[in-house]
Design a protein that fits this description.
With about 210 residues, this protein is α/β, with parallel strands linked by helices. The protein is about 30% helix and about 20% strand. The chain has one domain: Rossmann fold. The longest helix is centred in the middle third of the chain and has 14 residues. The protein is globular. It binds S-adenosylmethionine. The site of S-adenosylmethionine has 21 residues, from helix 3 and strand 2.
Length: about 210
């Protein structure tokens, strides 16, 4: 998959606010971290149709690194929004004792994921739903895993801020959230880049209008 560049804070649905100013300030810190191109953006980006996210699976060692970055443990509920064959939530249950929920639009992927969970012996700890991630209530997640596209991440970002409780982690394979939400950690693994964020009380309060 290739990375697309589009949108602005306003296009991503982020109104002017102190948080936006601090996010924009965060941009400076990102210069040189290969995120800066996300700032060169058409303002009409919100009117552009989202690209279709193709099915590309995350390699097993990258899955393990994503789980480590998300600090996934026994008490966690891990959502994979666009779960493919379910490998991330299955590994979260099998290796880390977490609970997992996978969401995918494609019924073929959901069938595969259920069969893979059965084979791995974790069907009691994971479940899979055929659904659109944008109409999914993932507020019970403590960790959200993503392998989507840049534009899709940007559209999802306000939903992540609104739905997730403070302390929840978000880990994304290969696609960041632009300068509006700089990642806390960036990990490179061969040709892969992983990004990690934590929902803060300020972010949640801002997104839910309680700031
Ligand atoms: C790049 S694959 C990632 C699969 C898996 N997360 C992994 O890392 O191995 C993206 C997946 O997202 C699914 N997808 C794309 N758009 C979606 C949407 N709006 N709602 C739910 N799933 C979606 C696709 O069907 C595909 O299986």
């Amino acid at each position: 998959m290739t990375e697309h560049q589009s949108t602005s804070a306003a296009a991503a649905g982020i109104p002017a606010s102190p948080l936006r100013r601090s996010l924009v300030r965060g941009t400076a810190a990102l210069a040189g971290a290969s995120l800066a191109p996300a700032l060169i953006l058409p303002t009409h980006a919100c009117a552009v149709r989202l690209p279709t996210v193709p099915y590309v699976s995350t390699p097993p060692d990258v899955v393990r690194r994503m789980l480590a970055l998300g600090r996934v443990g026994r008490g966690d509920t891990v959502y994979d929004l666009g779960c493919g064959d379910g490998r991330i939530v299955i590994e979260a249950a099998r290796r880390r004792g977490a609970r997992g929920i996978g969401i995918d639009l494609d019924p073929v992927r959901i069938r595969e994921a259920r069969e893979n969970a059965r084979r791995a012996g974790v069907e009691q700890r994971v479940s899979f739903r055929q659904a659109d991630l944008f109409s999914t209530d993932f507020s019970s997640a403590t960790v959200v895993m993503l392998y989507l596209l840049f534009e899709v991440n940007l559209k999802l970002m306000p939903q992540l801020w609104r739905q997730l409780r403070p302390g929840s982690r978000v880990v994304s394979h290969d696609f960041h959230m632009g300068a509006q939400w700089p990642p806390e950690q960036i990990v490179r693994l061969r040709d892969k880049t992983l990004y990690a964020w934590t929902i803060t009380p300020d972010l949640r309060a801002y997104a839910t209008g309680q700031a």
